[in-house]
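FW: tagging you since you asked about this chain on Friday. Here's the raw sequence from the shared folder, copied in full. Didn't touch anything.
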Amino acid sequence: MLQAVSAQAYAAARHQVALVDRSSRGQLLVSGRDRASYLQGLLTNDIEVLKAGQGCYALYLTAQGRMIADLYVYELGDVIFMTMVRELKGTVLTKLDQFIFSEDVQLGDGSETFRQIGFVGPWAAETVAGLLDDVSAAVLEALPEYGNVRAHTSGAAAIVTRTQDVGVPGFDVALEAAHALELRAASAAKGLIELDAGVADVIRIEAGVPLFHRDMDEETIPLEAGLESRAISFTKGCYVGQEVVIRILHRGHGRVVRKLVGLVFGGDQVPVEGSIVTADDREIGRITSSGWSPALQRPIALAYLHRDFVETGTRVSVGELSVAAHVATLPFIQ
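HL: got it, structure written out here
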């Protein structure tokens, strides 16, 4: 269960505004006049349709349809700004570079230059606007999902992006590392509470948001993680891994061997990540993320289960003590 200070941070994120450490995010820059058409053939979502100030969530797949990374792609007008789990940016950069032939495309690693600071909660737009020199809360509120805007804070250039992956809607502010320290100090001076890693993880799980190298990895097919509606365009042209995705959807009617689902537990014991899930003495899956939900006042988890056991309400047992749980619809809370 959450301690008092953590409970305060949780409440701030849900009902006011909270600061989020985003040092786990890496940043890549793609420039050149062919940047959109180049990424269009590599990523799962429709990149060419993006106009300045717009963005999307996308996946980078192998030819076998398995995930290399999930990314947030933002068209700034003269460059595409992409963010991902920091430990993946080297792999993504190397693989992207292999596909540049005669295209006018330049790749840059911004992970050592930029730092992102997250602001989440109902008051996020007003709070971020109060830290910027030239962008109002109304402009931020009007940004579409994955929208972006260039701004300044204390004279320093910044990129503000609308975010959802923390589990609560908000904004990330990306700026040079030295200026990021100043922005954090200014945020602290305003009395903003920062989410610790544990509370941030609980909020993410409550929202049913899978995290790379926790709830999905290089062996994951996007449909197993339920990402098709957010990350895959079914109207664009070809991209790497498309054949496998389409084959599953059309020939297999979208059926995969396992699916990511939510589990709700009846007692107070939070299951250990990696715990085996069983039904009728049959192993049917494993827990990938778990935590205590303040909203539901009980333990919850994300788990991959065999497709025969993913219907909402299905009763299962978890771990060596056979703790009772049932399958829940994601997200756990809206």
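FW: The mean pLDDT is 95.
HL: agreed, and The chain has nine helices and 17 strands.
FW: great, closing this out.
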